[in-house]
Amino acid sequence: MANLATPSDNLLDIRNLRIEAKVYPPGEEPRNITLVHDVSLTLKKGKVLGLIGESGAGKSTIGLSSLGYGRGGVRITGGQVFINGRDILTSGKSGIRKLRGREVCYVAQSAAAAFNPAHRLMDQVVEASLLHGTGTRAQAEKRAVALFKKLSLPDPENIGKRFPHQVSGGQLQRVMTAMALCSEPDLIVFDEPTTALDVTTQIDVLAAIKDAIRDTGVAALYITHDLAVVAQVSDEIMVLRHGRLVEWGGTRQIIKEPRQEYTNQLVSVHEITHEEQKPGTTPFLSVKNVTAAYGGGAVKVLKNVSVDIYPGQTLAVVGESGSGKSTLARAVTGLLPPLEGNVTFAGRPLANRLADRTKDDLRQLQMIYQMADVAMNPRQTVGTIIGRPLEFYFGMRGKQRDARVAELLDKIEMGKGFIDRYPAELSGGQKQRVCIARALAAKPKLIICDEVTSALDPLVAHGILELLLELQKEEQVAYLFITHDLATVKSIADSIAVMYRGEVVRYGSKSEVLKPPFDAYTELLLSSVPEMEIGWLEKAIKGRRMESAGN
Amino acid sequence: MAPILKLIAQRLALGVLLLLAVSVLIFAGTQILPGDVAQSILGQSATPQALANLREAMGLNDPAYVRYFKWLGGVLTGDLGTALSSGQDIATSIKGRLWNTLFLAFWAAIVSVPLAIILGLLAVRYRNGFVDKLISGLALASTSLPEFLIGYVLVFFFAVKLQWFPGISTVYEGMPFGQRMQAIALPATALTLVVLAHMMRMTRAAILNVMQSAYVETAELKGLSAFNVIRKHAFPNAIAPIINVVMLNLAFLIVGVVVVEVIFVYPGMGQYLVDHVAKRDVPVVQAVGLIFAAVYIGLNIIADIAAIIANPRLRHPK
Q1: Residue B226's CATH number
Q2: Which residue of B has its CA nearest to A71?
Q3: In what order do the strands lie in the sheet with A31-44?
Q4: Has residue B145 been placed in a domain?
Q5: Mean pLDDT in residue range A262-291
Q6: Cβ atoms A178, A94 nearer than 8 A
Q7: In the predicted model, is pLDDT for residue A548 greater than 50?
Q8: Are the beta carbons of A115 and B215 separated by less than 8 Å?
Q9: Before A164, cis peptide (omega within 30)?
Q10: Residue B47 CB neighbours (<10 A)
Q11: Are B284 and B272 within 8 A, CB to CB?
Q12: Which residue, A493, A507, A516, is CA-closest to A272?
């Protein structure tokens, strides 16, 4: 055990790292909590270590500690962090400033938010290089352009002259990678760099990052909650939970022969077997040739869309961001009146505008949103939130209402004890369950689920999907299920509509839609979903190239 | 047309409309007051015949809208009418005073705006620490004190005790620049102290708001020093609200200087206005009111346009 001297081939050596933060729970005294419990890790030059775990596992916190940085009130209270043999935690403010942007660089989850909207991209990309004196401006810009080329950005000579808002999200993520590589660091911390992207974009960015890491020989900490993604880029994987190390090993060992039960849970595929229901004879809700636009008809986001929803069944709408999925939901609910076409409900046309619909029509269509925490009033208790539709639609009061609220809480597998809780006291999954109960309280025929599991950890999301299916059986409620995640679609849908640029490009029962031959876009979507298999990325990219070359 | 030019043109048009509306209000306001100009000129003892003659001669019997357009037409051609109390042409007597007021406001602004922004930046840099609390505390104290008190305190120390500056800020045409500056030193200081805190606290709040952004974290993780993070990355994105509050305070420096001008007997617009309000000289009050409104609206339009230009999304559309 050479505890005093750092072996020279370890670029990064974290020993017994302990990180604490002060939390302010509502109605209680502030207290200290420990986010990271004595975690140690080492990383050799040019290697990639994947940090994986659910939210709250401490993966970002550990990643940022290698830059001597704590987000918010987070403090590093114990342990050592050696980079190139120096303990950076004892190097003082100026020592840490010399390290950041020079030896260690950071790539954030949302490049769109991480670029300063007020400056041109090139100025931001070369900023760290100039600050740390790794060359003149001309040299740094030359390096940046070369990196833009390597990351296959369009128009690499000129893209630096643009402002962040003039470049798409996937491209910004690549520019951010170029920014990190520009000052030729020894280590890059990638913090969920592809999580905010569409699957079809994710695969390109992933491939670009992988190539760049290989060609520049930089070491990387790759943080993500998606094992399938991390399996593509990492040499080793470290599994974390509640700020503690669960398992650390080679990528192949972790995904093929996990030694811990928790890792096994993460690795094993959670397929929900959902028997597809055949469409009934008459749909209760039909969207007929709907065209909708924003800006008074200026930007058409839905073009001649027709779909049917059958009682007690699930129609899944899939597509990338900007394909018009959420706009379809807005048109059905009346929030965005269609320009042309209409929506019929139980054989009669629904008023296009929300304001013209009857209270009973409103009751029949309920919504659940992606961000459960902003979809609830933070100052109301769970009881008030779920009780509101009962009062509003059915005029229930007092004991009758409370009994029904308790019944609904029971349905979402949360006890009566939650009635007096506030949203801030619930976990992400519990918040989403409360939103489900609120939608259910109105006894609707249809619930529109807009990316309801996208913000949740995989295991929690799995629980929510099972609950939704269970409730569908009990209550005979139909779902319009909007998602970009094809795995979710497979486990919940009866029929599927694939949307692309405002149009439905493929529509039918689940088995028809998922059966080859595919149209080009559905094929692209299906082939872009990461699989937990080493070498999947190369195979998928190769498959796509052959296809585009063949066309 | 580029969207940014369209937006700016809209703001300008809106400003002109607003100014017209204000002119109607000012005109209507002076009409509601009892008595009219003829009455004021001739006084209590006027005979009805003399009043009627004068009204006829001055066109006071015309309907209100005719008189309004006559007045407006005069204003647009630079004729603000004649002061009742002195019989002098208002435009001529205002010109020198407006210039004096602008001169004082200009130097107060030159000192207070950069000072407020730098103090705001420093307060953010050392937020919640001693420096922040000291800056905020002093700035708040100086704003809470009424300007007449600040004025007299300044006079007591710097004019009476130390005798560095004159206690009465007399300026006249052809006065050498150095002397003029010495004369306005105390009123300019008083004004600076009054407007400083508002601008400084707004700068601090606007920047703190931006400090939560992911791009500020990116800048910190590049190794920039705390002050450079604020200056290069936070400040440019906080500029719109800062410009807004700066312009409001500049407007105050011009239209709100009444008390300070009176204390230091400075021959500016404020004093002129106070004198003529006391004499119930309606045409002068109208003219000064319109000028003050124009200044106010003009500066706010500049703030709006500056905020539009400061937004890179509008400056560089996709």
Answers
A1: 1.10.3720.10
A2: B217
A3: A31-44, A10-23, A75-83, A86-87
A4: yes
A5: 82
A6: no
A7: no
A8: yes
A9: no
A10: 9
A11: yes
A12: A493
CA A394 to chain centre: 37
The residues, ordered by sequence, that sit 6+ positions from A368 with a Cβ below 8 Å of its Cβ are A375, A432, A435, A436, A439, A447, A448, A449, A450, A452
Residue B27 confidence (pLDDT): 85
Binary contact (B225, A97; C-beta < 8 A): yes
Query: A323 near A502, Cβ under 8 Å?
Result: yes
Q: Number of structural domains, chain A? A: 1
- State the first-to-last Cα distance of chain B, in angstroms, to the nearest integer: 15
**A259 to chain B, minimum CA–CA distance in Å?**
36
Tally of domains within chain B: 1
Confidence of residue A481 (pLDDT cuts 50, 70, 90): very high
Q: Which domain holds residue A446?
A: 285-518
Nearest CA distance, B126 vs chain A (angstrom): 15
Give start and end residues of each alpha helix (H) in A20-168. Answer: 59-65, 92-99, 111-114, 121-125, 127-131, 137-150
Tens digit of each residue's pLDDT (9 = 90 or more) over A204-241? 888 888 888 888 889 999 999 888 889 999 999 999 99
Q: Give the contacts of A56 (CB within 8 A, at least 6 positions apart).
A: A242, A243
Whether the Cβ atoms of residue B230 and residue B124 lie closer than 8 Å to each other: yes
Look at residue B215 and tell me if it is in a domain.
yes
* A328 found inside a domain: yes
- Per the structure, the complete domain to which residue B126 belongs is given by 96-270
Cα–chain center distance at B294: 10
- A316 located within any domain: yes
In CATH, what number is assigned to the domain containing residue A466?
3.40.50.300
Write a three-state SS string for A161-174: HCCHHHCCHHHHHH
Tell me whether residue B312 is in a domain: no
Cβ proximity of B237 and B213 under 8 Å: yes
**B116, B73 contact by CB (below 8 A):** no
Strand order in the sheet with A495-500: A365-368, A446-450, A478-483, A314-318, A495-500, A503-509
Q: Which residue has the tokens 């730098």?
A: B118
Residue of A nearest to B215 (CA): A114
Please check whether residue B248 lies inside any domain of the structure: yes
Domain membership flag for residue A437: yes
For the record, the structure tokens of A70 come out as 């704590």
Nearest CA-CA partner of A38 in A54, A62, A14, A18: A18
What is the spatial distance between Cα B212 and Cα A107, in angstroms, rounded to a whole number? 17
Q: Which of A212-221, A272-281, A335-344 is predicted least confidently?
A: A272-281
A113 CB neighbours in chain B (<8 A) are 213-215
Helix (H, G, I), strand (E, B) or coil at A14: strand
Sign of CA dihedral A86, A92, A98, A101: positive
What is the DSSP track for A297-318? TTEEEEEEEEEEE-TT-EEEEE
Half-sphere exposure of A121 (CA within 13 A, CB side): 31
- Selecting from A101, A108, A118 the residue whose C-beta is nearest the C-beta of B236 gives A118
CA distance A470 to A476: 10
**Residue A332 counted as domain residue:** yes
Which residues, at least 6 apart from B185, have a Cβ–Cβ distance to it below 8 Å?
B158, B164, B165
The interface residues of chain A toward chain B in range 124-143, judged by CB-CB distance below 8 A, are 124, 127-128, 131-132
- From chain A, the residues in CB contact with B4 under 8 A are none
Cβ(A164)–Cβ(A451) below 8 Å: no
